[in-house]
Design goal:
extended, mainly alpha
């Protein structure tokens, strides 16, 4: 029970920090961590079935349907496991924020895989070699420089999320039409390069 309280406190501090530093930005709780918290509210033998139901929430085509599915799940578990129903009713909004973003981004922002997999790994990689930093400032300087390197890599090299062009962007529509005309008359990549 103490572990749950600590994680809840940590989560609320993160939300508070986000609101202070980035006012007006929506908070997206990690779907994986939310699901784990929910699954521990039922006995182990029932977790696989509940996990199958939960998957239907975040694979829904839209937010309204996700809420409707969650309500069905809450109704099913209301009598036997009221803590599941209560958790679904109280905390569902925090995991469905990703539906407010374009479809192309939804799958990548509903979890904290980017933070855990890339940023934490990259920061730990060199800091384990260093071992002990002489003072707090040197540790902060290292972390900032490493994060700047990661940011530069993401901006110039690989992309985690493909950014969508706005409909009223400054793209030259005539050029796009000409390119599409060329592509329609070409059968292979070699012919396209020869044009």
């Amino acid at each position: 029970m103490l572990r749950f309280k600590v994680s809840s406190l940590r989560g609320s501090l993160q939300v508070k920090a986000q609101e202070e530093e980035f006012p007006g930005t929506p908070h997206q709780r990690c779907m994986v961590h939310w699901e784990r918290n929910l699954l521990f509210r039922v006995p182990a033998k029932e977790r696989k079935e509940l996990a199958r139901y939960i998957k239907q929430i975040y694979t829904s085509p839209n937010k309204k349907m996700a809420f409707d599915i969650a309500q069905l799940i809450a109704d099913k578990y209301q009598d036997k496991h009221p803590r599941v129903a209560q958790f679904l009713e109280e905390d569902l909004e925090s995991i469905l924020t990703f539906f407010d973003h374009p479809d192309i981004h939804q799958r990548k922002i509903r979890t904290t895989n980017l933070i855990e997999g890339v940023l934490n790994k990259a920061l730990k990689q060199r800091s384990k070699v260093i071992g002990i930093f002489p003072n707090r400032e040197s540790c902060l300087r290292y972390a900032c420089l490493r994060l700047m390197e990661i940011d530069e890599d993401w901006q110039t090299g690989r992309k985690y999320m493909k950014m969508i062009e706005d409909e009223d962007s400054d793209t030259d529509e005539d050029l796009i039409k000409d390119i599409n005309k060329i592509k329609q008359g070409v059968n292979s990549k070699e012919e396209l390069v020869a044009c």
